[in-house]
Amino acid sequence: MIRRDTLTEYARGSLWVMPTFAVAAALAAGSLLSQVNVGVHSPLAFQGTADDARNLLIAIAGTTVTVIALLLGLTVVALQLSSTQFSPRLLRNFLRDRPNQIVLSVFVATFAYSAAGLYTVGVSGGARTVSFPRLAVSGAMVLLFASLGLLVYFADHLVHSLQVDAIMNVVQRSTLTVIHDGLLPGGEQAPVPPAGAAAIAARCSGYVQAVRCHDLLSHAARHGACLRLRPRIGEHVVAGTTLAWVWPATPGHSPPDPQLFARVLDAGIRIGFERTLEQDAAFGIRQLVDCACKALSPAVNDPYTAVQAIDHLSVIFCALAQQPLGNHVARHPSGAAVIVPGRRFPEYLAVMCGLIRRYGNHEPTVADALLRLLGTCAGAAGDDPELCTAIAEQARIIIDDAEREIPQPADLASPRAAAESVYQSVVTHLPRHDNDQPHPELPH
Predict the structure, then answer these.
(1) CA 204, CA 241: separation in Å to the nearest integer?
(2) Separation between Cα atoms, residue 169 and residue 186, nearest integer Å
(3) How far apart are CA 396 and CA 409, in angstroms?
(4) Could you count the other beta carbons within 10 Å of the beta carbon of residue 246?
(5) What does the pLDDT average to over 16-43?
(6) What percent of the chain has pLDDT over 70?
(7) Where exactly are the structural domains of the chain?
(8) Cβ neighbours of residue 103 closer than 8 Å, sequence gap 6 or more
(9) Which of 33, 296, 301, 331 could be disulfide-bonded to 136 (CB atoms 3.0-4.6 Å)?
(10) What is the structure's pLDDT at 169?
(11) How high is the mean pLDDT of the chain?
(12) More confident residue, 127 or 365
């Protein structure tokens, strides 16, 4: 059975769904307007003859077909540019762009409306007639002017949407929405599956896109069970491998039926062929990291774009630093629980800094930008020792790589000062294993 949210997610990222509904709406509107009789002298009525009306509809239909081909061509070019210049994972953002879908829908609706009108305007029972639905022909002219306005808007929107700042801002905004609304809260100590826990195999391969914890918990409580997922949201699973473990919530009780919970997981966990941003903030981070790494590649060699990506990542990581991260544990008063493994802040930070650092360790401006991100995160981390330790560790690694790859001491002055500032911001919150030993110094 195809789930409703799966269809919704697919429809939001498809270029054909909204135009299909627009065609149906245009045909329905044309049929209704054809039933309305208005006088020849009405300001809403088309003032020409039946032949004039047919010629007008033919011209509109032919013009809109040409423009639709132009729109699709420009969209393909935009997708190709964004894929090769920034990241192939950004294609989904362009496909989900609502203005593009609306413009295409209006043009397709205009063509369908005009083409359908040729069956009735100036023709009745296979013979020519001088009577025709004048109001319906006026509607075609309205759609023509609306399409003309949207064509100009589309050109402006397309140019702006291909700007690197606009692309990154869309990713940043979408990721922040996930962090504040869609990210499963974590931070609890997750129970480990006991030795007798039953493994439930995945029925299909793909990426874990979303988890309905409420539905899973209600089923787990009904059967007195604890359920723990193996993959995190956004990770890939292979059909036949372990998707989750289930065991009785009360020791000594009979183990739950794995076959029953296999059907429960099918309803509560959505696995798709690609990652989505519904509950996966790491996917948004990956998109911006891809932009930075592409910019730092020898084929592009654009460090400033990488710096821009890091600046947008700073906003995201400040939001992450203020959220409870880690394993999400949903508990029921009966003792049942659902555990969804999650990423902690050091994991997010290590993946992001590691990829960009390895591509740009020879460029001082990239090291400066990464250290600026760490300094911003240090201000948001407060006195959390785990976050402070992760930030200090990344600062040490960045400076260590910069000193190895950048030969000029003058180029290292700014990164060293930035790293020292970061370290001083978090050093008072770092845990000490030996109270008699001072904190280690950054490499110089």
Answers:
(1) 9
(2) 26
(3) 17
(4) 25
(5) 88
(6) 93
(7) 4-162, 198-272, 281-334+343-429
(8) 71, 150, 151, 153, 154, 157
(9) 33
(10) 94
(11) 88
(12) 365
Q: Measured between alpha carbons, how far is 286 from 67 in angstroms, rounded to an integer? A: 35
Report whether 322 contacts 345 (CB < 8 A). no
d(CA 294, CA 260): 46
Listed in sequence order, the residues at least 6 apart from 7 whose beta carbon sits closer than 8 Å to its beta carbon are none
The token pair at 63 is 């013009």
Q: What is the residue whose two structure tokens read 């969209």?
A: 75
Identity of the residue numbered 389: T
User: What DSSP assignment string belongs to 283-308?
Assistant: HHHHHHHHHHHHHHSTTT--HHHHHH
- For residue 74, give both structure tokens: 């420009």
Amino acid identity, position 368: D
pLDDT of residue 161: 86
CB 171 within 8 A of CB 287: yes
What does each C-alpha distance from 278 to 243, 271, 348 come to in angstroms? 20, 12, 17
Question: Mind listing the pLDDT tens digit for each residue in 93-139?
Answer: 888 889 989 999 999 999 999 998 887 776 555 556 667 888 889 99
Q: State if pTM tops 0.90.
A: no
CA distance 79 to 82: 5
Residue type, 340: V
**Residue indicated by tokens 């992001």:** 352
Beta-ladder partners of 200: 244
User: What is the distance between the alpha carbons of residues 379 and 426, in angstroms, rounded to a whole number?
Assistant: 9
- CATH code: domain 281-334+343-429 is 1.25.40
Domain spanning 198-272: CATH superfamily = Pyrimidine nucleoside phosphorylase-like, C-terminal domain (3.90.1170.30)
The rounded Cα 177 to chain-centroid distance in angstroms is: 10
In this structure, what DSSP letter does residue 210 have? E
71: CB partners within 8 A, 6+ apart: 103, 104, 107, 151, 154
How far is the CA of 44 from the CAs of 36, 142, 387, in angstroms? 11, 11, 67
The SS3 call for residue 271 is: strand
Structural tokens at position 221: 């409580």
Q: How remote is the C-alpha of 157 from its chain's centroid?
A: 19
Q: Crossing angle of helices 364-381/303-321, nearest 10°?
A: 10
